[in-house]
Amino acid sequence: MTAYQSQLDDKTRRLRALLAPFAAPEAEIFPSPPEGYRMRAEFRVWHDGDNCHFAMTGADGKPLRIDTFPPAHAAINRLMPRVITALHDRPALRHRLFQAEFQTTQAGETMLSLIYHRPLDDAWQEAAEALAAERGVHLIGRARREKRIIGQDHITETFCVGGRDYHYRQYENSFSQPNATVCQHMLDWATAQAGSRADLLELYCGNGNFTLPLAARYRRVLATEVSKNGIRALRANLAENGIENIAVARLSAEELGEALRGVRPFRRLQQDGIDLATYDFDTVFVDPPRAGIDAATLALIARYPRILYISCNPETLADNLHTLSQTHRIRACALFDQFPFTPHIESGVVLVRK
Fold this sequence. Notes:
Layout (H helix, E strand, L loop, with lengths): L2 H17 L8 E3 L9 E9 L2 E7 L5 E4 L7 H16 L1 H4 L2 E8 L5 E7 L5 H14 L2 E6 L2 E5 L3 E8 L2 E8 L8 H13 L6 E5 L7 H5 L5 E4 L3 H14 L4 E4 L3 H9 L5 H5 L9 E6 L8 H7 L4 E6 L2 H11 L3 E9 L9 E8 L1
Parallel strand pairs: 1-16, 6-7, 11-12, 11-14, 12-13, 14-15
Antiparallel strand pairs: 2-3, 2-5, 3-4, 5-6, 7-8, 9-10, 15-17, 16-17
């Protein structure tokens, strides 16, 4: 048995045990490539006189030199030594640099962020423009209260779901799925589990990772997100893909519950022309943070016949299921190995009303 398969089997057993009290069916397992799966990587920059190298914090708390990073996509590994060479050759880029962040797409479009403990000047600008041109990357310099963009501050990832390509802007310093191969599995699985042609309510929608392909399976979608960066990316992605049956509301889950119950009106809904009374929600889709879903939001989503729940923390998922299992049963579940060789588990469950 390979080391990868062994760790995946451990995760499978752990998820099975957490879902056992809820009579869950056997989970579908979606593995990751054991290497080259990470589309993002962040490194400290460790200085030794005029030399520098990338580093991460080791188990002993000390910096561990990183020359190659096998978990990262090949485009990141190709770029890493070239960036180090540029830092050695151009002191204006190296001076008081403390962190480097790489982000790429499956097609190799790459964005490099360099983060400093000093203001950025004209010498930095000239050196950074040269590096960006030589390596064909978008380059962002960040310092306190300062951000300089060479090229653009986003890259565009593409996933094919249901025979259609969906294009996603992934903005610098904003969340996106880190493992593209497994993200493709997640999108395929979620759309395959979609319900009827009624309306979909989505909470915690982020940049619309799931929203865009799910919209093809429903009459209309109301997608909610509290993050301004998430809303910005989602609106850009809707325009990029020409999708017109998704309405976007910048509301927290708690605020949405108040709006649906008629506790108080929200000017944001009125400004966007959203009339909640016209929706016929058949399904609610949730992809909450690691803390899971609060009690008020659980009560809200339990009102709907079908719940698609993507979880980044199986313990909080199990805790939420103690509540949801009072009204719903698990019809399908899945494990998505987003982070190989770590204890982290991404999972999904489909719940239908009893």
